[in-house]
Amino acid sequence: MPMALEAADTKKISNDSAVLDIYLPPERKKIEGGGVPHVVAKNFSIYYGEFEAVKKVNADILSKYVTAIIGPSGCGKSTFLRAINRMNDLIPSCHTTGALMFDGEDVYGKFTDEVLLRKKIGMVFQKPNPFPKSIYDNIAYGPRLHGVKDKKTLDGIVEKSLRKAALWDEVNDRLDKNALGLSGGQQQRLCVARTLAVEPEILLLDEPTSALDPKATAKIEDLIQELRGSYTIMIVTHNMQQASRVSDSTMFFYEGVLVEHAPTAQLFTRPKDQMTEDYITGRFS
Ligand SMILES: Nc1ncnc2c1ncn2[C@@H]1O[C@H](COP(=O)(O)OP(=O)(O)OP(=O)(O)O)[C@@H](O)[C@H]1O
User: Fold this and answer.
1) Of all atoms in ligand 1, which is nearest to the CA of residue 238?
2) Does residue 113 sit within a domain?
């Protein structure tokens, strides 16, 4: 259990992996080579027209660790997540101010290549959304789009991605079958595999288990633990138990404001902000 925190310590949490590591519970291994700021928000706001849905967020998302985003409905969790790989660009009224950096580059810079950005920062949505194609073609789709044509290479990518997503053993004898024939949980793992096939650095998971039953949810949570350390993972979830099970740090949003960002073990046991405490203890939802 973490020792009592000085106020000054919490200021360092999002910037200093050593501080994060100190508050990792024993069952969560420190990740060698991880913990450097991978995504950095500086006074970053997101607007729909005049409405400021995400307000001047300052945060560092640490590489190879799992960051959960929690908060009541409509507080800006998905808006913030979708901004990271510019999915919000598809909404004409949406614009941003301040800065969002990925690997030290301005995500919203004039010369940012959005296709390349989305290759490096993949996303999995609330509802599994496989293409109405074979399991194989779902996985091969992204690599083909990025120029991989050789059949052997594609075969290798398909197998590797399905193995990483813990799905290979369940589907290797029916790769040519339509992906829509899989169960919901399998479809969601397929979507993770499809994202992994183009070798991203970051996985954005937007309530990835909200449409799944408890068994399928547990498999996705196990998968997140498997992928932890290889990818920077950000997960939006309404489920606080899930946030505390799978994540290393947690961001709590309220009405577009990032109220608190702290190591998960600390945020759920010793929140700094009264609002965080009220939320995690169920005084409002
Ligand atoms: N396309 C849009 N156009 C206008 N306003 C939007 C749009 N999408 C979201 N909003 C508004 O932005 C705010 C933040 O929404 P967002 O979906 O990011 O919240 P959330 O925390 O993810 O909510 P939930 O938990 O219900 O999914 C809300 O007030 C919402 O109504």
Assistant:
1) 25
2) yes
